[in-house]
UniProtKB/TrEMBL annotation, chains A, B, C, D:
Cofactor requirement: Mg(2+)
A Pfam family hit: PFK
The species this protein was found in: Flagellimonas nanhaiensis
GO molecular function: 6-phosphofructokinase activity; ATP binding; diphosphate-fructose-6-phosphate 1-phosphotransferase activity; metal ion binding
Family of this protein: Belongs to the phosphofructokinase type A (PFKA) family.
UniProt-recorded name of the protein: ATP-dependent 6-phosphofructokinase
Keywords: ATP-binding, Glycolysis, Kinase, Magnesium, Metal-binding, Nucleotide-binding, Transferase
Record's function text: Catalyzes the phosphorylation of D-fructose 6-phosphate, the first committing step of glycolysis. Uses inorganic phosphate (PPi) as phosphoryl donor instead of ATP like common ATP-dependent phosphofructokinases (ATP-PFKs), which renders the reaction reversible, and can thus function both in glycolysis and gluconeogenesis. Consistently, PPi-PFK can replace the enzymes of both the forward (ATP-PFK) and reverse (fructose-bisphosphatase (FBPase)) reactions.
Length: 433, 433, 433, 433
């Protein structure tokens, strides 16, 4: 469980001048046997003590003393897939810097426009990456390499990797991308090729299972925060002013909830995890009404995936990544509120920052995080690990098999401390319905 | 021409300890005869020289030595009307500080929710303003007093002013508000009441005639600037990526044009002043096509009022301020582009920051500007001037009769230097159609 | 070990409408027996399993079903001590909101100017706190209550608490403050008074032991980050340009190191934990020289406490908090570099942002964090816990006895992953000396 | 007066597709005879009318129909000199874009490290500039080309220009640089070479005579503004807390004064133009004392060049640009305040943002401004004008002979409206001494 697959036995000495003993003020190489338990609860510990089983644990990330590749001969490739997310360029930069400066890798290929770039039919040209052309990209949002949604034929992609003598592929992307890179890894295994595939999980929604947080997520609510602050001005600026801010969050409401907690002037947060009704004595509209009577204004933050159960007909349209396109809860909510208060003097302002959030450059927290993720991804790949992901769990950097995190998406636990803190901040009822 | 109306002869000495001579390092009182010519062109000067006429000129703003009111007995009122705009709170604060600290005014009334607050039927309560409750409001967007759109019965409003012994009313608002305050001034004159009415022009669109710039406008494109910077990331992040940013600008494209010039990665700016076609050999879509072939991405900034001539049926719906609601050019454009490139592989991202821009706090330039505007408004009112506006023309603070600036809205001169600089920056064709 | 002291048996039912079962989508009350192990390493786990000892663990933070106080009768007090740190106002606001809205506490006292405010001789007046006067303070840096350095007579302070019928004291402060509030707790115990004392650890240097991070620390390097970005412009703007940025960090270099990692254009980071020489073949100056030859510019970030061993005479001056005042390493370094390169054409720019960093408002990450800290502090106090601290360890909110974290200061582990990531980012030698 | 020198008769048709008639919605070429009067006062107008003299006027900036150079054969050079200032990169970018896209200029040379780059002995290599390598530099502070202080031998510099077939030199710099480029222009004239020299005035202090504002100045006080906002937190955070912020301003206090007006929480602004005493009944220290008694805190903003008359010995040390290095008024003030209040309980925080302000990227207002300045500079140079400057006067873009603006530095008029508005904002006495 949680064992990382290895392409083969490490055959080379790491060029890194590190240590193997404590006390010399030099960082120690990490051993594959350095592992960290996943569940911190004392209760769990006591259970384990009782049964004698080994607790679930994760492999610590970091440089290995023995590595699989001869660094001087390595060709690495980087691909970025799916929607934009703050920090992608920081990861690209970090991977390039680590390959070049730590390991002396000479050839680094940038795959343009996502997995499309690995399909020759699409006609995009591979680009050369070096410290010189990536050194300033961390200051920009977006992706230096371009991106695309959806997958390509796995066999063709592996053909392209082989044709270009790629030894390791770093794939920055979300759920779909990670599944894709895992499939590429499987195909490589079938062919007995020695290409390491590494995932760096990217989802602005923060919905990747098991890990603490995905990069870009903190920037997302950092960017959303002044938008909410000023939406509050729209709400208070009119008598019975109502402002609705729609934020990202297809299946998980982390951005909406965190932004509301970060700028605690929000009165209602609606997220996909919640079941709520508009109508009825305990419904949202009554709660909103009570708020207006009391305070003459209200600020609502709604995640794009919230309230899909309220639509009579379920959407079945899919986007290029294969996700079902949601019906627009923001406009729906606005219409329902207008209807409900048709005979009252209210003013509604609807704010949909959409792409503004995801195309921003990484903030400082995410910059630190992406640098460290990138370094760890490179160390793992050089050691010959494959189909793994570099990430942070319980505030520690670890490697996890990709297959372990793509089983389900992370959601806000409605009974957890985080959601409780959001409810405490907004003062909204526990249930509306 | 451009003469400011006076409630009566000044009867009191200004409490300000200023000077009347140059050279003593103390600011001099301004005289009503201190005027500044409006037209700077030498050609105009030579014409005037020839005809002997007096050139059009404006009264310099600033404190007068003789004032109309006994400051200790003054009751002042402030009202903010119409949509939000960065800097409203700075003006409120500035007016309160100037009244309180410079002139020792004891009673300052805040009128809640725009002109509605002057109509007792609406049930809003007047609030007391003092340095203490406004001292930090300049750091927030929105309006501390609340606002509303549209007018109220002039007679009722003057009744309210009289009932509350108001001596001077400061109205912060756009075209409609200024017309309203002028009408209030006329009614006051009819009643022979001695209430000064002062306008402080507020329009985020920067479309008030004659003046250099309206406050909040610079903040508007300052806030839009990083949104455009990041929209560029959306455009370049996909193969044939197109990003469309819709910005405010009902009848004038100043925000869109300035934002494009401030963040010169924009390829097309479309404004209300422009006549353009989508179709045809020289139409916008062909120009966009050429851009994509050359660069594989494009960034379009469109003012909300642009391209209304493209809609088959003209909108006739009006908003609460009496302005015709525009058809949505942003979504229209998106649809037309999708249609045009239906058989090509393109990606469109549509970004509509809307209220995000107007609810932001004032930037530093606007903060300096609003403070000075507020001070000048107070000096003018204390001197007994009425139905005037404090503003900046040719980089100088002046007073203008309100009636002079509400004749027509300012628009971008398509033959002027400003629009030319925008065209130089975007590289778009002079004409598209 | 790590057991929280309790004032007495809880006698009241919590007014919070929470749950005690999983699955009802309502947050569950936390039990005192809910604990989390401190050490995550599998190795440690296995050792413990072997010996059968209970592993060190911490009490989970959160609301208890049974509480010690009758909320309606509670008087709470808040005090903020020591230097400014981003997020103090957020904590004040969070504590007030939690007391008022969750528990219905009627009386909340703000202690002005730190511990001085508990000493009547100082003449400061206690202030009343309510949602109304704290609702917007989270948008400002600094402390709404004012602060002071150093302690006051413990007995006098407890007299003041008793004289004002205070039931719980929330103290926001660093190492000294926490020791102080612990001493107050001891005195209270001696008197058999039933006053809960709670610490909320505040240190911009992030040097409090055991905990993940202290609030305000992330904002600190977020504020420092653009300063470093622009210092890079100073370095590259001149031939052989050298920019030195001095950042906070008396005994621990977390801010300097994190800022350098967040804005990875830094070439050297010097921190208090490091031993380094200026002179010699492997000294800093030679390393700098090599950098200039290669790249013609260099950017150095130095923590204020770095290199104190380089001064011939140790500073013995103490500040008001009893900390030894450091000799100025920034100016010293500048002088030494000038001396070393006396015959070369170099340009040095010295940048000391000092108070700019600590007086800033909290960023979004810290805002979320401070809200949750404040809520947990209140829940713990209401439950009758005392001499404890609310904090985050291994990414989970827990309570720790104050006495456990004041034993020593947290420092950067020179053999740890964090410092290694900084060295990877800067490319500076492991040792300079 | 104010006549621009011309290298010779224009011989070529402008490649710009502009118009010569009004009404066709195409920008019109500007004629040399299009001029704007300098003094707007009606009084001046009337005087002039009386005497029949032509009023002082300035040549309108913009593209000329007939140009001096054959654009396809032009080699242009750009040099940036002196200290950093926000917006330099925007000007570089704007000049390159205008030369390349408007006029089709093929060869653009970047001169590295200021005038040093024109002295071959210094060994710096000229760089090629193109849209590709400057397209993103507007997002960064500093100068892409590097800079240096002081001049080089004029004859050598002209040799270098001739050796590289340079036809036009754009020099971005302050007073010294402008004098330098004028001297280069004189030497060129002597040699009868046909090289246009153009100044783009750069001074963060805003002290260039005649012009409205220099670029970068607005960004400067925009960057200073939150520093002042937070310094206020330092002042209020302690009992009798005093914060001192030192800002740039060698001979003119524009930054300090504007920043104080932009963030109106400042209580005292001290600028070089002011004469003030520390001691005495009306001195600064008594005024500060009164403020502390009243409000318990004070915020002082001091320009670096203020109060030089207070030092017993005048500084005579000069910097590389030949400016006398000022004694440090900030630290002096701090010491004097400490001394004065030695027996009182006060806390002083001294904040010196120094390089932080000048190395920042341009804000949106300055971005618009620098783009337009750059375009106008290029149009003027292509027309064969020389020894002129592109700038803005009375809110209009004009050309001025460099020699006219280097006669004296612009200072704040202590009797002017701007300084009066600052005094109104701070509430400080008109005189302190």
């Amino acid at each position: 469980m949680f064992r990382i697959e290895q392409l083969g036995e490490p055959k080379f000495k790491s060029p890194l001048q590190l240590s193997t003993v404590r006390g010399d003020k030099i960082f120690n190489f990490i051993k594959d046997s350095d592992r960290l338990v996943l569940d911190l609860s004392l209760e769990h510990y006591n259970q384990i003590l009782h049964t004698g089983e080994e607790p679930p644990s994760l492999e610590k990330a970091g440089p290995r003393q023995d590595i699989f590749y001869d660094p001087k001969k390595v060709t690495a490739a980087i691909v970025t897939c799916g929607g934009l997310c703050p920090g992608i360029n920081n990861v690209i930069r970090g991977v390039v810097m680590a390959l070049h400066y730590f390991y002396g890798v000479k050839r680094i290929i940038g795959v343009p426009y996502g997995y499309e770039g690995l399909n020759p039919e699409k006609g995009h040209k591979l680009v050369e990456l070096s410290p010189d052309n990536v050194k300033e990209i961390h200051q920009f949002g977006g992706t230096f390499l371009g991106s695309s949604r959806g997958g390509q034929d796995v066999s063709i992609m592996v053909d392209t990797l082989e044709a270009n003598n790629v030894d390791m592929l770093f794939a920055i992307g979300g759920d779909g991308t990670l599944k894709g890179v895992n499939a590429i890894g499987e195909e490589i295994k079938k062919r007995n090729a020695q290409i390491s595939v590494v995932g760096i999980p990217k989802t602005i929604d923060n919905d990747i299972d098991l890990i603490d947080e995905s990069f870009g997520f903190e920037t997302a609510f950092d960017v959303a925060s002044p938008i909410i602050r000023d939406a509050h001005n729209e709400a208070t600026g009119a008598y019975n002013g109502i402002a609705i801010v729609k934020l990202m969050g297809r299946d998980s409401g982390f951005i909406a909830a965190s932004a509301a907690l970060a700028m605690p002037v929000v009165n209602f947060v609606l997220i996909p995890e919640m079941d709520f009704s508009l109508e009825g004595e305990n419904g949202f509209l009554k709660a909103l009404e009570a708020r207006l009577v009391r305070k003459k204004h209200a600020l609502i933050v709604v995640a794009e995936g919230a309230g899909q159960h309220l639509f009579e007909e379920k959407s079945t349209v899919k986007d290029a990544s294969g996700n079902i396109k949601h019906s627009d809860i923001g406009l729906f909510l606005k219409a329902k509120i207008e209807e409900h208060f048709a005979d009252k003097d209210i003013t509604i302002k609807y704010i949909d920052p959409s792409y503004i959030v995801r195309s921003a450059p990484a903030n400082s927290g995410d910059s630190v995080y992406t640098n460290r993720l990138a370094y760890h991804a490179v160390h793992g790949a050089m050691a010959g690990k494959t189909k793994f992901m570099a990430c942070k769990v319980n505030n520690q950097y670890v490697y996890i098999p990709i297959s372990e995190v793509t089983k389900k998406r992370k959601k806000i636990d409605l009974e957890g401390e985080f959601w409780f803190s959001v409810l405490q901040s907004t003062g909204q009822p526990f249930f509306m319905g």
